[in-house]
Design a protein that fits this description.
alpha+beta, Alpha-Beta Plaits, 3-stranded antiparallel β-sheet, two-stranded antiparallel sheet, 7 helices, binds iron/sulfur cluster
C-alpha cells in the first residue's frame, strides 16, 4: 500500500514539474548562457574596487590622502605613502584585500580626487586566496578602462598683491546738533504761536 502511494505521489509531482515546464516553454528565457552571454551591469553597480588614472598622463589620480583607508569599515585598504621631490604625498603601495572587502563603496564616497572607484567588473575568481589581495599595479591596470568623470584641476592661485597701507579712517562727521536742542520745545512753539497770533491781530485785539 505504501509503495503504491509513493508511486502515485511521484507521478503527481512529475506532472506538476512538467506542467511548469510546459507553461514556461513558449516564453522567452530569463537566464543567460554565462559565460557566453553577460548582463550589462548598471553604471552604479558595486563590482571590484579599482584605482583610476589620469587619462592624459596615465598616472594615478591618488594623492595618498588616506581618506579611503580610514573610511573602509573592514580595513581592506592598506596604503603606504611617501613625499616626492616637490614635497607632495604619493602612494608608495596601495593594496585592497578582496577577501575582506564587503563592497560597501565607502572608499569611493570618501575620495575627493576621482582616484578609487567600484567598477562594474565582477569576475575575479582565482584558485589561490592570496591572489585576491590586489596591489597598486593590478588595481591600476584593471581600472584603466573604467570610465569616470575627471575632477577639474584647480588653477594655480595668483599671489595676492601687496596690501596698500590702510588710509586713516575718515574723520567722523561732526555730531549732529543736539536734536533736542534743535527741537522747538512745546513752550517755545506756543510762545511763537502766540506772538505770531499777536502780530497778526489788530493791536486792539492783541492788547485785550
Ligand atoms: S568597498 Fe568598502 S570594504 Fe571594500 S575597500 Fe571600499 S570601503 Fe573597504
Ligand atoms: S584613493 Fe582617494 S581617498 Fe584614497 S588615498 Fe587616494 S586620493 Fe585619498
Amino acid at each position: 500500500m505504501g509503495i503504491l502511494r509513493d508511486f502515485i505521489d511521484g507521478v503527481y509531482n512529475l506532472l506538476i514539474g512538467l506542467g511548469v515546464t510546459a507553461k514556461r516553454l513558449p516564453k522567452p528565457a530569463v537566464t543567460l548562457q554565462y559565460p557566453d552571454q553577460r548582463w550589462p551591469m548598471p553604471e552604479r553597480s558595486r563590482g571590484i574596487v579599482v584605482l583610476l588614472s589620469d587619462k592624459e598622463t596615465g598616472e594615478l589620480n591618488c594623492t595618498a590622502c588616506l581618506l579611503c583607508e580610514k573610511a573602509c569599515p573592514t580595513s581592506a585598504i592598506t596604503i603606504e605613502r611617501e613625499k616626492d621631490e616637490q614635497n607632495r604625498w604619493h602612494a608608495k603601495s596601495f593594496t585592497v584585500d578582496n577577501t575582506i572587502c564587503c563592497f560597501c563603496g565607502l572608499c569611493e564616497e570618501a575620495c575627493n580626487f576621482a582616484a578609487i572607484k567600484m567598477a562594474t567588473k565582477y569576475e575575479f575568481a582565482v584558485y589561490n586566496q592570496s591572489e585576491l589581495v590586489f596591489d597598486m599595479k593590478k588595481l591600476q591596470e584593471i581600472g584603466r578602462d573604467v570610465p569616470y568623470e575627471p575632477i577639474p584641476k584647480k588653477k594655480p592661485v595668483a599671489p595676492k598683491p601687496a596690501e596698500a597701507p590702510k588710509t586713516p579712517a575718515a574723520a567722523p562727521t561732526a555730531p549732529a546738533a543736539n536734536p533736542v536742542a534743535q527741537q522747538a520745545t512745546p513752550q517755545a512753539d506756543t510762545a511763537a504761536e502766540n506772538s505770531g497770533k499777536s502780530a497778526g491781530k489788530p493791536e486792539s485785539e492783541a492788547g485785550s
